[in-house]
Amino acid sequence: MSSRFSLEGKVALVTGSTTGIGAAIAQALAEAGADVVCHGRGDAERTVAAVRDAGGRSFAVKADLAERSSHAGLIEAAIREFGKLDILVNNAGLIRRAAAEQHSEEDWDTLLAVNLSAVFRLSQLAGRHMLERKSGKIVNIASLLSFQGGVRVPAYAASKGGVSQLTKALANEWAARRVNVNAIAPGYIATDNTSQLRDDPERSRQILERIPAGRWGDASDIAGAAVFLSAPASDYVHGHVLVVDGGWLSR
To answer: What domains are defined for the chain?
Structure first.
């Protein structure tokens, strides 16, 4: 592997890594040489096993990111176990589908707490450590709905728009201090979050007809972008939202 894409000796924390995009990113980071802390609300041991099989050290931490009190413990656990934190991937996220006029305040509050507020607080906590060490990479998982409004997902769209702008705001402050903050905006990826869309034949057909690549994305399609944004190859990339969407936005 080119040293520009090597993560040998690096320590990463990936939130929401029990399944889907987070699990794929955790495994890819390990394959590039990183040790990976795997977070989830549930059991992340399958991802831990995959990381270890790929050659990395790993352990799981369980936390509900809707609870503000849980945030500091994630960062502290990584540093306590591995001595440092080089890479933070803010992947954890929720989606709730409902017509805007019926969208509950509870769902709004929960989605904003997990999808946006937790991203800021974890970035802030990790950023303090990285700024002190004058080195670090933060990769946020945004969405196509950072650019588009979507349908029946007002809280999700609002939160992902916020992730995009937060990424740029942090990069503006931290780029000169050798901490890179970037984001990935996945397109339509075959994960649990999109199961309702894929199970609807009409909606699935409409989506596929617009994707130039002609297929739903796979979680592994996002993992390569995460490795790039975590590696030395992206050292001059700051405040960028990298779209991985099979060509959706170009259509």
So the answer is: 3-244 (3.40.50.720)
Q: Which residues make beta-bridge pairs with 244?
A: 186
Q: How confident is the model at residue 241, as a pLDDT?
A: 98
Instruction: State pTM to two decimals.
Output: 0.97
* Annotated catalytic residue 188: no
Among the options 21, 86, 113, 156, which is catalytic? Answer: 156
Handedness of CA 53, 79, 163, 137 (dihedral sign): negative
Q: What is the 3-state secondary structure (H, E, C) of the chain?
A: CCHHHCCCCCEEEECCCCCHHHHHHHHHHHHCCCEEEEEECCCCHHHHHHHHHCCCCEEEEECCCCCHHHHHHHHHHHHHHHCCCCEEEECCCCCCCCCHHHCCHHHHHHHHHHHHHHHHHHHHHHHHHHHHHCCEEEEEECCHHHCCCCCCCHHHHHHHHHHHHHHHHHHHHHHHHCEEEEEEEECCECCHHHHHHHCCHHHHHHHHHHCCCCCCECHHHHHHHHHHHHCHHHCCCCCCEEEECCCHHHC
Tens digit of each residue's pLDDT (9 = 90 or more) over 64-74: 999 999 999 99
The type of residue at 54 is A
